[in-house]
Amino acid sequence: MEDESRIGLARGLVTMVMGILDSTQQTAWERDGFLVIEDLADSVSCVELQQRARAIVEQFDPHAHRSVFTTNEQTRTSDDWFLGSGGEVRCFLEEEAVDSGGNLARSKQGAVNKIGHAQHDLDATFSRFSRTPEMAQLTAAVGLADPKLLQSMYIFKNPHIGGEVTCHQDATFLYTDPITVTGFWFAIEDATVDNGCLWAVPGGHRTTLRTKFVRNDAGDDSAGTSFEVSGPEISKDGAVPLPARAGTMVMLHGLLPHFSGPNRSDKRRDAYSVHIIDGTARYPAENWLQRGAAGPLRGF
Ligand code: FE2
User: What is the tens place of the pLDDT at every residue in 197-227?
Assistant: First the structure.
């Protein structure tokens, strides 16, 4: 009896030290800069989130807001719809969904690239999905002292036209000083090599930030944005695919090079990602994402 209680006490202490991650996971996270955790979200939560996302798209008027989202540096559209979305819930279209005449070439549900970027605060279903005890424990496990949910995206990667996301570091777009952004990417449906799963470079986070995406004038949306380059382009040499069953979460270090291919298959690949920073770090006014009327960032 005494031994059992001692073992129980020892287990409790191990849990307190490691938190939600065991020692193997903690080592893998530090070594690779990413960590795949299966079944972090249950199927009921995934379906609920997907239904809510489709309801948001249903309310979207694509003729009023023909904003296309792309990570291609040459064609990124930094229009008002995008720059003002840091504290809103907005839909962005796929590049290939809009024809040369500016008309939708697809049904609305098949034409949207993503919803962004504050549904984690402004929508009850998204807030519930994003603010679980497990998520709070994970942020603590990776060292975020004062976790603040900064940005979220529901990414459709629709069949046949789902666009690629070019190789990038998340800190390029969500910069803090020091760098603290951590990505939590959930497969809402099965993600495979065929339908555009994530790819990442193991260990690639042990490098510097190569580019910053900044506002040209912190106080003026119409001044647009640009990329400040401070090193050679990041390499995707050695990248590995991260196929993920629905409910799997992939945690990504802010400096980790990662990307996903286009979806040319006939299978959907919905995903949800939320990016969390440390509130103790400085958040510059020239970052593209500003909260506007949504107010201060919130934690768990
Ligand atoms: Fe990313």
Answer: 999 999 999 999 999 999 999 988 888 899 9
Ligand 1 centroid to residue 166 C-alpha, Å:
9
Phi, psi of 208 (to 5 degrees): -105, 170
| Contact assessment for residue 168 and residue 71, using Cβ atoms and an 8 Å cutoff | yes
- For the chain, the structural domain boundaries read 2-292
Distance 7 CA to ligand 1 centre (A): 42
Question: What separation in Å is there between the alpha carbon of 8 and the centre of ligand 1?
Answer: 40
Q: What is the whole-number distance in angstroms between the Cα of residue 168 and the centre of ligand 1?
A: 6
Ligand 1 centre to CA of 202 (Å) is 15
Reported CATH class of domain 2-292: mainly beta
Cα gap 227→6, rounded to integer Å: 57
37-93 pLDDT, tens digit each: 999 999 999 999 999 999 999 999 887 766 665 555 434 445 788 899 999 999 998
